[in-house]
Amino acid sequence: MQPIRIFAGLLVLAITLAAPARAITLLRDPDIEHGLRQLAEPVLRAAGLSADRVDILVIDAPSLNAFVVDANSIFLHSGLILRMDNPAMLQSVIAHEAAHITNGHLMRRPINMRNARTAATLGTVLAGIAGAAAGSGEFAAGAAAGIQGAAMRSFFSHTRAEENAADTSGIRYMHSAGVDLDGAVQVMNLFRGQESLSLTRQDAYARTHPLSRDRFRRVRALAEARSGTPAPDPDAEYWFARTKGKLSAFQRSPKWTLARVGESGFEDVRLMREAVAHHRRSDLGRALPAIDAAIARRSDDAYLHELRGQILMESRRIKAAVAAYGRAAELKPRNALILGAYGRALLADGQVQQAARRLEQARSRDGRDIRVLRDLAQAEARMGNRGMASVLTAERYAMAGRLKDARIHAERASGLLPRGSPGWRRAQDILAAADAAE
Q1: Model confidence pTM above 0.85
Q2: What are the residues facing 27 on neighbouring strands?
Q3: Angle at 240 between CA 296 and CA 312, to 5 degrees
Q4: Burial class (CB in 10 A: 0-12, 13-18, 19+), 45
Q5: What is the mean pLDDT of the segment spanning 12-17?
Q6: Of 39, 288, 314, 348, which has the fewest Cβ atoms less than 10 A away?
């Protein structure tokens, strides 16, 4: 899989650590994130949390795992999403992770991703996530050595007491939200028997969320104690089919997808998946009619227009891609991922000032997108703003944990920008973080 090529705006972070093949890719797709937000909203609301303030983010990893970093972020492995059979199963995982937030299980974790003062701090957190993606809390601690030291040790693991409390709260949130509680039982059933496996054979979820037969029986008893099975939620069924369908279309082979395009039962999802499969075969002649047919059914769906822009952009139909992304941005003017993709297309079309404006809008709404930092740095350099280009490049390197490279560009920015200006102060943040890491 070539993540930069396949997903427009996909690669936010790819940290390669000291061990072979230890890397993390954070998948960013506006449609998938919107679908996850729709699924999460009822259980988050039941937990007293806002879906607008809690990001549900996807890590490109085939293992089954989910974890929380702070009160504003829940991470799901792509492998876990693909193993879920129905929306209730996925919602139960989100409810459980939300319970870790609301029950205060993160109080001992000092790093807050959303409120991190510097890009370097964010890079430290995401380096820790790389360890968690590999299923090793101690590996995460090692990755962050020299920046946070022991603060990252066992960052993602929970005690059995915390797990029991999260199970109880998660079931309560699901019941309050009208989600079928059998979803939680089905998820627990996936992990039965993990304790009998060697550590290296266990799913990552079992290593960060202690499991046991007693816990499975307890979750089943909690579910059975609450009477009644809610009626299926058509909206949840749709967004689950669309989210899983798009993710699998990009992660499975086109042949696999085309053999199963209609399994969701939703015509626009079928057409979207067909478009992705043909696009991945570089068959624009079939991909474009499929996505256009999906748009004909949902003409005001910004995420379908965004996918159309991606297909055109990656087929080097730049001006047509600009128009498609422009329509998506018109429909969702505050979506950072759409704005970033729109800015990228404008930059490729030579509309540098317009690109810089859209890219800056994207950066101000979501500063975690390394591709936006890269593209905005290119735009600033092409406009002659070498100082700001250096700041953005320094932030990009810092976010990837490459503080030596970040220092070089931050020092360059400090010499080019007026002392005390916003850009100069951002460069000083990077230099301070690099000093602290030594």
Answers
A1: no
A2: 11, 58
A3: 40
A4: middle
A5: 32
A6: 348
